[in-house]
């Protein structure tokens, strides 16, 4: 059996990977190996490794790497600790392929260790752009360290090829966010209210704001502007989810907690889990903040998204997404727009640019069958050359 090792470090990433992991477990020709790291192992972020185990997955290795500080020095040191931990884990598990998703620093550490260990890497969701975060550089770096690429859109496929990857190893499968929506397992409104200990209002918003890691000291200012705009909404229920473990995340968490303590129609959660998060998305009016879920999943629910600032700048967006500056006045205008009759009518015909599902099935089907012979020696695919050949054993 082909041993395929999946690495996950955050709650959002796990939600996207879960359909792939389910299918790898079910596939008769593959053996799923699972390495859990980062936020999953931290009580501060909800110790979400427990949810992974509850979902029926065996965690083969745990790589502790997350320091308690959110400074640039701490994040850099976490990457070093992660690289050491992944080196040991890969040496013990000896996988045939490592599956990595996205662009976070935990995943960069895993890619570095796998590259040196001469293990083929399958990278999911490459070719995308997020101009406001250093995730952008990490994502493209992982692309160059990887050997197979599974992308969400044709534009992203062309961008990966532009980076010198051979077209035969770049597969347009669609976005995993669509596959990750457990349509038959979403909670109804009363179940969700009971589990979260809240009551939905006449209007409801799901709010997630992450640090913009390429902007120094911007977190406090931008979140202050967002909270000032939300404070005007006296008839609205606000459900906050806390930020990821990025540089500057602690100040965001502190400001949200203080806001919630002063507003009776606001609640904050360290980790909702996939089912409850997507169930919230089902029942709210809009997703507000700068999370990729507002771009990848919300359009499938035909829900509005207010995308604030530059963190997601460059990503493909549905017509349900309103981009606005991180200023209270711009956010107030966007909040007014989403409730307009014209915009509400527009939502009924929204199409998700990341496809209609099926990505996880395609990924597992390809990974279970594709030849691994000679894949480690890549040849740069030069778009200006007429003599491009397969980049493996030619």
SSE layout and pairings?
Blueprint: E1 2-8, H1 11-26, E2 30-37, H2 49-54, E3 61-63, H3 72-93, E4 97-101, H4 105-116, E5 121-124, H5 135-145, E6 148-151, H6 154-162, E7 170-172, H7 176-179, H8 189-196, E8 203-208, H9 219-230, E9 236-241, H10 249-262, E10 266-269, H11 273-283, E11 286-289, H12 293-296, E12 304-308, E13 321-324, H13 328-338, H14 341-347, H15 359-369
Parallel strand pairs: 1-2, 1-4, 2-3, 4-5, 5-6, 6-7, 8-9, 8-11, 9-10, 11-12, 12-13
Helix pairs in contact: 1-15, 3-4, 4-5, 9-10, 9-13
Can you walk me through this structure?
- The structure is a single chain.
- This protein is α/β, with parallel strands linked by helices and 394 residues long.
- It has 15 helices and 13 strands.
- It has two domains: 185 residues, 3-Layer(aba) Sandwich (Rossmann fold); 160 residues, 3-Layer(aba) Sandwich (Rossmann fold).
- The strands form two sheets. The protein has a seven-stranded parallel β-sheet, with helices on both faces.
Main sheet: strand order: 3-2-1-4-5-6-7
Which superfamily, in CATH terms, is the homologous superfamily of the largest domain? Glycogen Phosphorylase B
What is the top-level CATH class of the largest domain? Alpha Beta
What integer value in Å does the Rg equal? 21 Å
Total helical elements: 15
Number of domains: 2
Query: How are helices and strands ordered from N to C?
Result: EHEHEHEHEHEHEHHEHEHEHEHEEHHH
Uncertain runs: 390-394
Largest sheet: 7 strands, parallel
Mean pLDDT rating = 92
Helix content: 40-55%
Q: Approximately what portion of the residues adopt beta-strand conformation? A: 15-25%
Query: In terms of structural class, how would the helical and strand content be classed?
Result: alpha/beta
| Mass-distribution shape | globular
Number-wise, the strands total 13
The CATH architecture of the largest domain is 3-Layer(aba) Sandwich
CATH topology group of the largest domain: Rossmann fold
Cα-to-Cα separation, first versus last residue: 27 Å
């Amino acid at each position: 059996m082909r041993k395929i090792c999946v690495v996950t470090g955050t709650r959002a990433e796990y939600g996207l990977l879960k359909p792939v992991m389910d299918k790898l477990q079910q596939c008769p020709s593959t053996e799923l190996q699972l390495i859990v790291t980062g936020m999953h192992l931290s009580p501060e972020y909800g110790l979400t490794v427990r949810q992974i185990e509850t979902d029926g997955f065996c965690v083969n290795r745990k790589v502790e790497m997350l320091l308690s500080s959110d400074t640039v020095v701490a994040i850099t040191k976490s990457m070093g600790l992660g690289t050491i931990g992944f080196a040991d884990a890969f040496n013990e598990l000896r996988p045939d392929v490592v599956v990595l998703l996205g662009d976070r620093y935990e995943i960069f550490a895993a890619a570095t260790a796998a590259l040196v260990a001469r293990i083929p890497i399958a990278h999911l969701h490459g070719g995308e752009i997020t101009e406001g975060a250093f995730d952008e550089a990490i994502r493209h770096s992982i692309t160059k360290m990887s050997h197979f690429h599974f992308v969400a859109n044709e534009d992203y496929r062309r961008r990966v090829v532009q980076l010198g990857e051979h077209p035969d190893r770049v597969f347009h499968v669609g976005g995993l966010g669509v596959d990750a929506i457990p349509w038959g397992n979403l909670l109804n409104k009363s179940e969700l209210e009971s589990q979260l200990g809240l009551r939905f209002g006449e209007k409801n918003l799901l709010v997630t704001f992450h640090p913009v890691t390429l902007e120094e000291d911007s977190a406090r200012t931008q979140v202050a502007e967002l909270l000032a705009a939300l404070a005007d909404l006296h008839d609205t229920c606000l459900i906050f989810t806390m930020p990821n473990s990025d540089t500057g995340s602690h100040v965001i968490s502190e400001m949200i907690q203080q806001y919630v303590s002063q507003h009776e129609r606001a609640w904050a959660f360290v980790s909702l889990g996939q089912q409850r998060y997507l169930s919230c998305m089902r029942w709210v009016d809009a997703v507000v903040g700068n999370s990729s879920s507002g771009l990848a999943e919300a359009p499938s629910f035909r829900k509005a998204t207010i995308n604030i600032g530059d963190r997601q700048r460059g990503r493909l967006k549905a017509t349900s997404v309103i981009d606005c500056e991180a200023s209270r006045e711009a956010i107030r205008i966007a909040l007014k727009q989403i409730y307009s009759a014209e915009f509400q009518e527009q939502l009924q015909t929204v199409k998700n640019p990341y496809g209609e599902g099926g990505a996880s099935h395609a990924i597992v089907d390809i990974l279970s069958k594709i030849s691994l012979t000679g894949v480690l020696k890549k040849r740069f695919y030069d778009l200006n050359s007429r003599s491009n050949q397969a980049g493996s054993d030619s």
